[in-house]
């Protein structure tokens, strides 16, 4: 693979290619390890990695590297595999925490292992099977977090050890505690009363939980492209922050889609966030500008498991009437503009355009 | 602190000192990070670290380093803190998996956070509080796994980067997936019928789940003492394997104690393993040599939640009659002898004696 060839590909072909080579390199890596595992642990570890995901993070890493002078994209593969493994580790633990049953159209890891154990051991009571599914998913997530570090260590074959060390250190000192704090904030915000949640705290949570890992992918890409430690590269910081902004914009759009979109496009029923009582930026904004009658209505709607279509209609109307919808759209657009502005620091025209496409594909998801 | 001074201390004073400096250096490290956390996440992360544990792993690391020429023990502190953080991360996740409610005499992390959340949010139903406790404990364990890597990275201040890299790489490629496979095997063995469990598979599980991390502590110590990458040191391998053997011996003794010891010494009720249906080496051995009447009795006893004192008496009698008790004691003693034999490679008399004391204190626990 040559640099120009890759960036000259139409964007969708480029990302399909990235998905393919990332998955292939992950499964080669896993092959060495999982043969020692039990069947359940192997399945738990491989499940999400082998389902076709969008590989947004490996794509961003590759594009950021190409934008900063990477000549041998194949040398980036361990890093691309690492960010995807890391992402999948967070998904496995997040799915346990959120009690989600579906991921990428199939059962989540804990649900999958529980249902198989129940079939295999007919005497196993269903509580035990569920616990075993959760326990195996905890273990599988832990393992994949670790694989991400193993994969990054492999970069020392082709890159200066100081560069790799700066990447590992960013991962363990900034990305990892930050992303997990985001996970925790997400849980804690959900337990708070809407009137006490500020839009600042919601944005902080989104930046940590979603933005930080996207930013990490961009930062690694630049560090490897420039063959410089992360902290010495201004482009790494610029693209890193751009990716974080894009991540926040994506989350805002996702919340909007959750109320105004189509179930098929969203991948879950419209209004799920309302039923779960999730204090999205949309809701926090609407609350702050709502009349007391509207607040009463919102209180009834949020966290109510038995919402009707007309309740959801009412929530939509309040969100529009208060201007919360417009405010959130503006905020997302501002973040996107900011992200694109940062990409202007990239001198290469093709690479810059590809980064723009990445941002657009993140925010305007069409699947 | 000077090398000779440390090794000249009586062993119990030495380990008390290690406990103190390890905990102090962990809390200094945490101070930098946890101030950004929510109160619950801070508490979940700090809980076990601040309870006085035995710090067996930091002690072994220090002794192994002193045994291989370390001149500045204070430079080892990040590594000592790292192995303790790692150990605590595994405990937090293990306690969720095992549904344990007590650890070091106080509530386990998930139980602690659940009970506090229930108090703080009286409207929270108890299921939700429990889920929140588990979720927070998952996050806290994840964070501590990562801190272990951050702490190890700090070693580059005083040690060659190649040495540190070999340690990080052992952690992510061997220790981490291996220990977690041990955790998984433990769960899966518990679901199997006793007649299908082999003593080989139980020993493998113990070596992975308990031995590997002890071995890692010894290996790191030697690598830092000799300032050589792990893979280039025969002493690192020798002491690493010795520590693994000692870990298996400890587990066997622990299983014996679980049936023949005193509740106070064990820290949990006698017979817990029987109630949980845990296929210990003792049980697997007894089964293989039991008469069919004894097997019938064992089948009734194992996994039975309502065991009487006389059931436990019967289990003890079968374990003694079949020779399983003697076989397991022999096996543990063989492992201990093997571990001590390996320590003979240490030239320094004081260091060698201290390692012997470490092995004895691990196996003959008196708390």
Explain briefly what this protein structure is.
2 copies of one chain form a homodimer. Chain A has a two-stranded antiparallel ribbon.
What does this structure look like?
2 copies of one chain form a homodimer. Chain A is mostly helical and 367 residues long. In chain A, 75% of the residues lie in helices and 1% in strands. The first copy, chain A, has 2 domains: 1-158, Farnesyl Diphosphate Synthase (Orthogonal Bundle); 198-367, Farnesyl Diphosphate Synthase. Chain A has 17 helices and 2 strands. In chain A, strands 1-2 form a two-stranded antiparallel ribbon. The radius of gyration of chain A is 21 Å and the shape is globular. The two termini of chain A are 28 Å apart.
Keywords:
367 residues, Farnesyl Diphosphate Synthase, 17 helices
Question: What's the layout of helices and strands?
Answer:
The structure is a homodimer of 367-residue chains.
Chain A: H1 3-8, H2 11-34, H3 39-50, H4 56-66, H5 77-98, E1 102-103, E2 106-107, H6 109-120, H7 126-153, H8 161-191, H9 199-226, H10 234-260, H11 263-266, H12 272-276, H13 281-289, H14 292-301, H15 309-321, H16 324-343, H17 349-363
Antiparallel strand pairs in A: 1-2
Helix pairs in contact in A: 2-3, 2-4, 2-5, 3-6, 3-7, 4-5, 4-9, 4-17, 5-7, 5-9, 6-7, 8-9, 9-10, 10-16, 13-15, 13-16, 14-15, 16-17
